[in-house]
Amino acid sequence: MYQTSLTKGQELVAERMVREFRRQGYDAFLITSIYEDWEPALPIEEVTARGGFLHLYDDRMRIPVIRVDSYQGTWPPRRIFFRNFIDVLKHIVEELKLNVLITHSTLWNGPEEVAKFMAWRRELIASGSIHEPMLFCHMSHFQEPSDERYPLEERSYREAWNKFSLARIVKDADMLLVTTPMEEEGMRKLGAKDEQTFLFPAGVDDILETYAAGSGIRDRYKLPGGAKLVTYLGTVEERKNALGLLGVAGKLSQNKGVHFVIAGRLEGEYGEKVKGEAKKYPNVTVIGQVSDEEKAQLIRESYVNISLSRAEALGIAQLEFMYGGIPVITSGTGGQSWIIRNGQTGVILNGPEDVEGAAKAVLELLNRPYYRNRLGKAAARSVSRYSLTRLIQTFSKLLIQEFAEEQEPASPLNVEPSEKVVEAWVKDNYRVVVTTERLTVVPLKKAKETASIPLREIKKIKFQVRALWSALWVGGAATVLF
Q1: Which of 104, 139, 409, 438 could form a disulfide with 177 if both were Cys (CB 3.0 to 4.6 A apart)?
Q2: What is the pTM of this model?
Q3: Is the pLDDT of residue 461 over 90?
Q4: Alpha helices, DSSP H only, in 75-138?
Q5: Domains, the chain, ranges and CATH?
Q6: Residues 63-110: tens digit of each pLDDT
Q7: For residues 419 and 7, what is the distance between their CA atoms, to the nearest angstrom?
Q8: Which is nearest to 121 in space by CA: 131, 111, 108?
């Protein structure tokens, strides 16, 4: 992942995956840049002095982190890039004996460099230089570039990157983790096969349950004891439309039975603007970034969660509230419309600007507590299968199965005494063998079937591919090709 964060969605997913893999007994590490929330987490000199990467343990995230040589690019905006990463990755893989690489996000060079690294390894495996299999997985957290969110120049670049770089990554990855069925369809448009995709809706961090028993969150932040809390949780940035929440609070300012809470890291000028504007509303409290313990307690104390976000691949905060039995009022953007069923597990508004609808939804849930409780119970049931524990257990089994297929010997091809091998090469997990009598495609994975076509039945050859003989391993004594 290109950076770390204690509040941002994609970064949290990567960090939690590492933590859960380790909790289930696997060695797992987070490879990332020197940056956290766009600020250096350590001096770049410490990393370069140690050969381009520094291995340390982060007590806050409770995981081992490998910080690599990196820099903030000028284009595209809001992206960080790794420097000399293929060579650095080679040393990390050798040192830690890694056999699975999972890349996150888009529009940065990490996934591209890993795809090149994996192509290099596959060539070395095909030539017999190395033998240890390795799997490459990618999780895009994909959203279609929107003209509402991005100016033309950036949107067109994103579209070009998706068509060029992401399409290649999709082709080369062993597995693609997708957060929603909509994202899965987007990957298919880029060439993904059904067997490549695995639905991974971010995952609810089960460890939050251990913190929920605590109390005192209201006293700590001077939240009114008798009011129902309508809570926003997430980074306070323009995309999340926190100013829209102030509009909702304004419409309910005379209702003493409800209080709005904005929790999360304040992002730049926009975050400070929200904090300043909120002072005009006596029924709003901005509490800023919270710890995991405080987050769990805040979820427990909340009456409803609200999000007027303009763009969301999924919405980890909404999953967490739903897991705790708290219904959600949402703009319904992106993956929100998939995880929340209107009138069943929450309320979907008419978009991020529907302040009037949001105020009415809050009032309805306040006036109909039984309806609110029914939504909350249904929400908890609907997301229980998306706990991080369950998702990693299932994903791990798939990885183990994939390794078993990688390590099984390929189906042998017996060469008849009357035929001679003319040419052979390896491409896209297949060995192609041309003899004087037939063309045979031998899968590297045993689960796939071998195809053999007599040359006399081939009517036309549209193009020819030549490859080095070193790409083919021949068992000479037995005259068997593996």
Answers
A1: 139
A2: 0.79
A3: no
A4: 85-96, 109-127
A5: 9-203 (3.40.50.2000), 207-386 (3.40.50.2000), 413-481 (no CATH)
A6: 999 999 999 998 888 889 999 999 999 999 999 999 999 999 999 999
A7: 64
A8: 131
